[in-house]
Specification:
By secondary structure, the protein is α+β, with helices and mostly antiparallel strands. The chain is built from six helices and ten strands. Strand 7 and strand 8 form a beta hairpin. The N and C termini lie far apart (47 Å).
Length: 204
C-alpha cells in the first residue's frame, strides 16, 4: 500500500471514528437514498433543538431560481443579497426565515442552532439582518419542524445519517452534489434490503 493510500485510509478512519452529533445539539442530517418523500428526497438538513422540546431546521441543498430582490422588489436592501433564496422545508412555505451567521442573536424570534449560527423567524428581525448585514445570512422559504421525540424516531428508523454540524458547510456556495458527497463519505448509512420494516419511508 502506498503512503498516499495509507494517508487516505487514515483520514477515512478518523472521520468514521468521530462521534456524530448528539440530538441535543445542532446536527447535519443526510437523507437515506430510499427516503422517497419529495420534500426530503436527496436532501441535506441542519437541525437543532427547538424551545418546544422538538427540533427545527432547514434544507441546505435546495436553492431556488429566485433572488431575494425579485421576491421583494420594493425593498432596496433585499437587492444586495447575492445568494439565491433557498427552499427550507414544507412548514410555512409562504414564510421567509433566515440562517444568520453572527456572534450574537440577531433579535427576537431567533433560535440558536450552534455557536455563531441562528435561525431567525420574526419578520422585523429578518428585515434588520437584510438591512444591516445582508450577506451574513442565507434566506429560505419554509422550514422543517419535528415534534418532541419525532426526529429521534426518524433517526432510529434509518431515515437520516447524522453528522456533526459545520458552519462552513451550512453556507457552502455550491450545493450541487452535496448530498452525494456526504452520502459517499459516510459509512454510517445502512444498506437496507427491500422491504426492511425500519425503512417504511413515508411522507409525514
Amino acid at each position: 500500500m502506498t503512503s498516499v493510500l495509507r494517508m487516505l485510509f487514515a483520514l477515512a478512519a478518523a472521520a468514521l471514528a468521530a462521534p456524530a452529533a448528539a440530538q441535543d445539539e445542532a446536527m447535519i442530517l443526510v437523507a437515506h437514498p430510499l427516503f422517497r418523500d419529495l420534500d426530503y428526497r436527496q436532501t441535506v438538513l441542519i437541525a437543532a433543538p427547538a424551545p418546544n422540546g422538538g427540533h427545527v431546521g432547514v434544507i441546505l441543498n435546495r436553492p431556488t431560481k429566485r433572488s431575494l430582490g425579485s421576491l421583494f422588489p420594493e425593498h432596496e436592501p433585499s437587492k444586495k443579497v447575492l445568494d439565491p433564496v433557498y427552499y427550507g422545508g414544507p412548514f410555512s412555505r409562504g414564510a421567509l426565515v433566515a440562517l444568520v451567521h453572527a456572534h450574537d442573536s440577531p433579535g427576537p424570534g431567533s433560535v440558536p442552532l450552534m455557536k455563531d449560527l441562528y435561525l431567525a423567524f420574526r419578520a422585523n428581525t429578518i428585515d434588520h439582518v437584510i438591512e444591516s448585514t445582508p450577506n451574513d445570512a442565507r434566506y429560505y422559504v419554509g422550514y422543517v419542524g419535528w415534534r418532541p421525540g419525532e426526529l429521534k424516531s426518524e433517526i432510529d428508523r434509518g431515515l437520516w445519517t447524522v453528522l456533526n454540524a459545520d458552519v462552513e458547510m451550512v453556507f457552502r456556495k455550491d450545493t450541487d452534489g452535496l448530498w452525494e458527497e456526504l452520502l459517499q463519505s459516510s459509512k454510517r448509512i445502512r444498506a437496507a434490503a427491500p422491504g426492511d420494516a425500519r425503512l417504511a419511508l413515508v411522507a409525514r
